[in-house]
Amino acid sequence: MAVSRGEFSSRLGFIMAAAGSAVGLGNIWGFPTQTASNGGAAFVLVYLFLAFTLAYPAFMAELLIGRYGQANAVTSLQKMSRTLFHKRFAFFVGFSGIVCAALILSFYGIIAGWMMSYAIEPVLTITGINSGAEWVITQSLPRNILFTGLFMFLTIFIIRRGVEDGIEKWSKRLMPMLITLLILLIAYVFTLEGADEGLLAYLSPDISRVLEPGLLISALGQAFFSLSLGTSVMVIYGSYISKKENLVTLGAQVTLIDVSIAFLAGLLIIPAMYVAQAQGVAIFAEDGSLISGSGLVFTVLPALFNTMGSGGLFVGFAFFVLMSIAALTSSISMLEGPVSYIVERHDVERKKATTFVGIIIFLISLAIISNIGVMLDFVAILATQYGQPIIAMLCCIFVGWIWHRNEILQEIQQGNEHVGSSFFWKIWPWYTKFVCPTAIAIVFIHSL
């Protein structure tokens, strides 16, 4: 099929794009919220363990599938297939990942729209447009539709421009901004009363909680969600990587950046919660559970910013700009998965495919918005806590049991000719074949 494919122009371009996909609201909003709801440092400990022992091997599997296939998720998996059954299984796994990416973006766009509305609120307050400032942070159907549509427009705008001029170019711009803002906000929060107590809660684990079923499934879902696994995203990003690049090193670098930024986000949010508590804002219920849950950043943190006087407006603006940037770096990768499938399998021009897919996903978002109290949590849990780990597990099964071992080695050797004698190659193939699928299955059974 005569469809011209893009490619990342540099190693830095891929790292920024893949890290941008990994670093999103899952890290800066989801990770701290999950940490606060699941025992603080105990959750951090389990998350870090699962990120490196389960998520990284699965991450490598998806990158390898993509670079070998040099195509969208379905086509790449089918290129590895030997029989009709394998091809059908490949279609199921690849297409399920594309659907999962679309479902995630459908609810993700709503939450990202809220981040944008909260970023605009301080600007409207400073300029004296108080009624507008109140409207943008008040739950309503028109507000949700407007800002979800605005966020989806930005995502579509970037993806229409392709790999190098769209995904790579904007990831290189947005990621440094995100990291800089995050570090500046952490430094500021650490100067406030109550931050020390939050830091202690974040870094001192209660070991007795690490095997709790709820904590395990939340940590596993968080690890897979934050690395964009099980969504076809890393398969398609892998297909844009040069054959000369060392995938083992690249995969480790992206995983490390992702985990590091999630950890930094916890250093910001958890101490900020305790700062808010010191200012009289209620954080925990009498039974010790988190009051705000998934709405943490829209209730606790704005209440904290309000106690800072006029300075709080600038801090609030910086924080929600940070959140909006994080959301955008992830959303562009989620839209790329379905778009690449339409472009390559149905020979549709990229701009048309991007607009078409973007509108379809926006319509799904509208359906969620119309019954947001029920649908938002349902779609989020379905896609992130169940869909992503299961699909990532199937990718591991595909690599471990269907793809021939010598073909895998040849693919990795294209960017690392000595990998055959490395510790990675001695461990990873059987680990992906046996340990990853089994461990993911055990965690699910245990959680049920």
From TrEMBL:
Q: Which UniProt keywords apply?
A: Membrane, Transmembrane, Transmembrane helix, Transport
Q: Which domain of life is it from?
A: Bacteria
Ranges annotated as spanning the membrane: 12-32, 44-68, 89-115, 145-163, 175-195, 215-238, 250-276, 312-335, 355-374, 386-403, 423-445
**Parts forming coiled coils:** none
Q: Which membrane topology describes this protein?
A: Multi-pass membrane protein
One cellular component term (GO) for this entry is: membrane
The family database entries (InterPro entries) matched by this protein are listed as:
Na/ntran_symport, SNS_sf, YocR/YhdH-like
Q: Where in the cell is it found?
A: Membrane
In terms of PANTHER family, this protein maps to:
TRANSPORTER (PTHR42948:SF1)
- What name does this protein carry? NSS family neurotransmitter:Na+ symporter
Species assigned in the record = Thalassotalea piscium
Provide the organism lineage as a comma list.
Bacteria, Pseudomonadati, Pseudomonadota, Gammaproteobacteria, Alteromonadales
